């Protein structure tokens, strides 16, 4: 339909005069406007005129005179100007309804005058909250719930691991214990205990049936105050002084007095104070390796050992079960004897730590719980070793497995030193003393890995 401004019912109508000016108007202006020739005021005619449809001018805005008022009758009226953020829209909601029909988009005042409905505030009408914002809040709440559930499950996994670990008394009572030095030192021990193995398992793993327990693997992990860790292997046949027992192989200290005696012997032999203790037996070692699905090792040449019935081809392969255990225990088939064995033990331990520290294990709560509790039930910690110290041990071993830090063996002068205890390993006293002093004081190491 065509747009006729004269039919626009939204245009403001001036209010009637107030006070003493509310009087009958001279009919002459109305007569001249409507074409009437009346000479006097006729109330009946006035009433008829009031019911007539007034024809408003076209092509311009109506003035007070068009309604029969003089210009000064509304001098005291207050006219309000309302700004719009955009041109007001017509009845159909289209801007074009007020353009091209005698109106300019910026001229329409929108009913804000003479007490009409106020226009929208400056800057446009406020926007209503959108459904998109509500959906975003729901998504954020859902993500927060997932994060809280993940954190709770990780706490549960760590707590379960910690509660599954056994404790042993490893704190020496010797009054002559070395004082604390630079960094921290932790003793890692693998025993040849077969107590948790059945007779069939002993036969399958070729462990023998010897009763009791001895320290089969001895390593010292040094974590400096700053810098990379050091993993030091101590040959189990090292000939040293055992406090109160005379000279003997160092692994005998464990069979004589358990972890406490072994820690005391290492402290007196090295001058390093031990801050934490961890041990694992044959059965625990096999269980941990099996839990991670085996450890990948790459051999430069075939490895065979008649005593343990070990036969491994050259190349990369997964080691688990008896192959893994006998690989780290074998020494008769290695030309380097005990020195070659401790090197294999460090390599295997680093590879095992690398497998256990994979994101698919440590970042997945149920997988962490599975591997962690299997490991926790297979190891034992010293009674004075805290959760924080156990975490430092794990991080230090992970650093070693990533190729950071150094892996060393105590300097040796003779690998076949004959003693009352049989063939033993004799340390290089000068080089060994320099190494222990550097670790104790935090000085650079003087020997190469």
Question: What can you see in these coordinates?
Answer:
The structure is a single chain. With 449 residues, the protein is an alpha+beta fold. The chain folds into two domains: 5-98, no CATH class; 164-441, LCP protein (Aminopeptidase), CATH 3.40.630. 35% of the residues lie in helices and 17% in strands. It contains twelve helices and 15 strands. The chain has helices at residues 27-34, 43-50, 131-163, 199-205, 252-270, 282-291, 321-329, 338-356, 359-362, 365-378, 387-401, 429-441; strands spanning 166-168, 184-191, 215-223, 230-233, 239-242, 246-249, 276-280, 295-299, 303-305, 310-312, 315-319, 379-382, 406-409, 412-419, 422-427. The strands form five sheets. A seven-stranded mixed sheet has the order 1-12-7-2-3-4-13, sandwiched between helices. A two-stranded antiparallel sheet has the order 5-6. α6 (282-291) runs antiparallel to α10, α7 (321-329) crosses α8 (338-356) and α8 crosses α11. The longest helix has 33 residues, at 131-163. It is elongated. Mean pLDDT is 78; it is low at 19-23, 26-38 and 95-116. Residues 1-10, 17-28, 44-58, 86-98 have a biased composition (Basic and acidic residues). Residues 214-357 form the Cell envelope-related transcriptional attenuator domain. The chain crosses the membrane at residues 139-162.
């Amino acid at each position: 339909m065509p747009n006729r401004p004269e039919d626009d019912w939204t245009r403001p109508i001036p209010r009637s005069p107030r006070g003493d000016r509310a009087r009958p108007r001279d009919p002459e202006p109305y007569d001249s406007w409507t074409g009437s020739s009346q000479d006097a005021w006729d109330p009946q005619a006035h009433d008829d005129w009031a019911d007539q449809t007034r024809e408003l001018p076209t092509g311009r805005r109506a003035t007070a005179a068009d309604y029969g008022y003089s210009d000064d009758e509304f001098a005291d009226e207050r006219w309000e100007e309302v700004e719009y953020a955009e041109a007001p829209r017509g009845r159909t909601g289209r801007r074009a309804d007020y353009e091209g029909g005698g109106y300019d988009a910026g001229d329409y005042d929108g009913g804000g005058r003479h007490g009409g409905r106020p226009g929208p505030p400056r800057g446009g009408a406020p926007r209503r909250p959108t459904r998109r914002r509500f959906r975003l809040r729901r998504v954020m709440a859902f993500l927060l719930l997932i994060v809280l559930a993940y954190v709770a499950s990780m706490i549960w996994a760590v707590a379960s691991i910690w509660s599954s670990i056994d404790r042993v008394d490893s704190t020496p009572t010797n009054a002559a214990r070395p004082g604390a030095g630079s960094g921290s030192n932790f003793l890692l021990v693998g025993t040849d205990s077969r107590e948790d193995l059945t007779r069939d398992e002993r036969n399958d793993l070729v462990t023998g049936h010897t009763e009791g327990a001895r320290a089969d693997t001895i390593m010292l992990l040094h974590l400096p105050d700053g810098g990379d860790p050091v993993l030091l292997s101590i040959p189990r046949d090292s000939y040293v002084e055992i406090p109160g027992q005379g000279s003997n192989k160092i692994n005998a200290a464990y069979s004589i007095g358990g972890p406490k005696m072994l820690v005391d012997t290492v402290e007196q032999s090295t001058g390093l104070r031990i801050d934490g203790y961890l041990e694992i037996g044959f059965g625990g070692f096999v269980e941990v390796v099996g839990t991670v699905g085996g450890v990948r090792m790459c051999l430069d040449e075939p490895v065979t050992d008649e005593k343990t019935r070990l036969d491994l081809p050259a190349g990369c392969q997964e080691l688990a079960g008896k192959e893994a255990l006998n690989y780290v225990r074998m020494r008769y088939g290695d030309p380097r004897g005990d020195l070659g064995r401790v090197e294999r033990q460090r390599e295997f331990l680093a590879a095992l730590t690398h497998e256990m520290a994979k994101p698919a294990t440590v970042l997945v709560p149920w997988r962490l719980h599975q591997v962690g509790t299997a490991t926790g039930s297979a190891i034992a910690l010293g009674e004075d070793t805290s959760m924080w110290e156990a975490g430092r041990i794990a991080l230090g071993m992970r650093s070693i497995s990533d190729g950071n830090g150094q892996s060393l063996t105590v300097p040796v002068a003779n690998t076949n030193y004959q003693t009352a205890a049989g063939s033993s390993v004799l340390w290089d006293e000068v080089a060994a003393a320099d190494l222990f002093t550097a670790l104790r004081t935090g000085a650079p190491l003087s020997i190469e890995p």
